[in-house]
TrEMBL record:
Keyword Zinc: no
UniProt similarity note: Belongs to the ammonium transporter (TC 2.A.49) family. Rh subfamily.
Ammonium transporter AmtB-like domain: residues covered: 39-389
Matches recorded under InterPro entries: Ammonium/urea_transptr, NH4_transpt_AmtB-like_dom, RhesusRHD
Membrane topology note: Multi-pass membrane protein
Name this protein carries in UniProt: RHL protein
Naturally occurring in which organism (per UniProt): Tachuris rubrigastra
Any one cellular-component term (Gene Ontology): plasma membrane
GO terms for MF: ammonium channel activity
Localization per record: Membrane
TM regions (residue ranges): 12-30, 73-90, 96-118, 130-150, 162-181, 202-220, 226-247, 283-305, 317-338, 350-376
Pfam family, one: Ammonium_transp
Length: 404
């Protein structure tokens, strides 16, 4: 057994114990005012849906690699439960130390914020050890809350809308981090899926698809409108995924990777506009466009953009979450212009604020993602060799009788 593995095994329990000690100290000494408690009581079914979505949905969604199933589901569970506690701690500190009155402690908001981390994890899946994932989670949560504060304080973005930047932030933060890791060899046999792993990953997509209306409506002011628009967008994106998958395949057969990614595009695309769309046909068009940009983007990015930039996006989070989020942000600006067309005096100012929030979110995600990737590649965090990428046996007890 290598010394690197022994060091990793000995460091993980102490890192987790230190974090839990900090969370317990926070609970004892800081005055935790759960301002979101009434919200949680009034919308517990939606909160439960989002909890299922993050734990079950992303846990199975990330099972795309043939020999990394234990790590995909197990690490996701640990990262989520640690991250939610960390998010509440970050909200406490920002409000108490820096008087960020915009933030109120809410488990629901913390859970939604963890979606950014789950998306980023998909980009670096199989290339990071657990200590690196924990460090990435803490850094990303802190930076995401800072990004939300900038959007709310200086760009006057609403609380719900600032949270819906999780897809945009998580995708581009993860891409920046994964660009700092060595690329795996194209001949590496472990870097591929099997029918079984594709099936489990599709199960995760189904979980995410079913619960996505609750995700978009949990903190929305007009929940009924958000649920209806999200469902219609998801329905059209799923239908479009099947149609475009057959059209873009040489033999006219469906490809599971297309359905797995594009079926969710509608929910991501309308996340910014779900509560402001007055007519369902607008949400349906956005769902169609989101699905199309996902499937077409997967071909273009993997063949044209990723090789020269040396970006290895394990789970395809760029075209699954990043591109639909960009489309949704642009759609929000267009719908804002249409709605405020008669109020020409303030229209330019409002457009400038929303475009500024969009650019600020991506810029901060990319910048801090590169810095985080550099930190994760230091010797202190026990870098795993490229030959050990996408390998459960490096972390878990795996029966020798189990065929991986």
């Amino acid at each position: 057994m290598s010394s690197n593995y022994l060091n990793f095994r000995n460091s993980v329990p102490w890192v987790i114990l230190l974090l839990e000690a900090l969370f317990l100290i926070r609970s004892y000494f800081l005055l935790l005012r759960l301002d979101g408690l009434d919200l949680l009581q009034s919308s517990y079914p939606e909160f439960q849906d989002v909890n299922h979505m993050v734990i079950f949905g992303f846990g199975f969604f990330l099972m795309v690699l043939r020999r990394y199933g234990f790590s995909s589901t197990g690490f996701n569970l640990l990262i989520i439960v640690l991250g939610v506690q960390c998010a509440v701690l970050v909200e406490d500190l920002l409000r108490v130390i820096f008087s960020f009155s915009f933030f109120s402690c809410s488990i629901a908001k913390a859970l939604i914020s963890m979606t950014a981390v789950a998306i980023s994890t998909g980009a670096v899946l199989g290339k990071t050890n657990l200590v690196q994932l924990i460090v990435m989670t803490i850094v990303e949560l802190i930076v995401f809350y800072v990004s939300r504060w900038i959007n709310r304080r200086y760009l006057e973005v609403g609380d719900h809308l600032s949270l819906m930047h999780v897809h945009l932030f998580g995708a581009y933060f993860g891409l920046a981090v994964t660009s700092c890791f060595p690329e795996p060899s194209p001949r590496l046999d472990k870097n591929r899926s099997t029918p079984k792993s594709d099936l489990f990953s599709m199960l995760g997509s189904v979980f995410l698809w079913v619960f996505w209306p609750s995700f978009n409506s949990l903190l929305a002011q007009s929940r009924r409108k958000a649920v209806l628009n999200t469902y219609f967008a998801l329905a059209v994106s799923a239908v479009t995924a099947f149609m475009l998958s057959a059209l873009t395949s040489k033999d006219g057969k469906f490809r599971m990777t297309h359905i797995h990614s594009a079926a969710l595009a509608g929910g991501v695309t309308v996340s910014f506009t779900a509560q402001m769309i007055s007519h369902p046909w607008i949400a349906m068009i956005l769902g169609l466009l989101g699905s199309a940009i996902t499937i077409l983007g997967s071909h273009c990015l993997q063949r044209c953009l990723n090789p020269p930039l040396k970006i290895h996006d394990t789970s395809g989070v760029h075209f699954t979450f990043g591109l639909p989020a960009v489309l949704g942000a642009l759609a929000q600006v267009v719908l804002l212009v249409i709605r405020e067309w008669t109020n020409s005096s303030s229209l330019g100012y409002l457009v400038l604020l929303h475009v500024g929030a969009f650019c600020q979110t991506i810029s901060l995600a990319l910048l801090t993602g590169f810095i985080t990737g550099f930190i994760l590649n230091t010797r202190l965090l026990k870098i795993i060799p490229v030959s050990k990428y996408f390998e459960d046996q490096f972390y878990w007890e795996v029966s020798l009788n189990v065929k991986l």
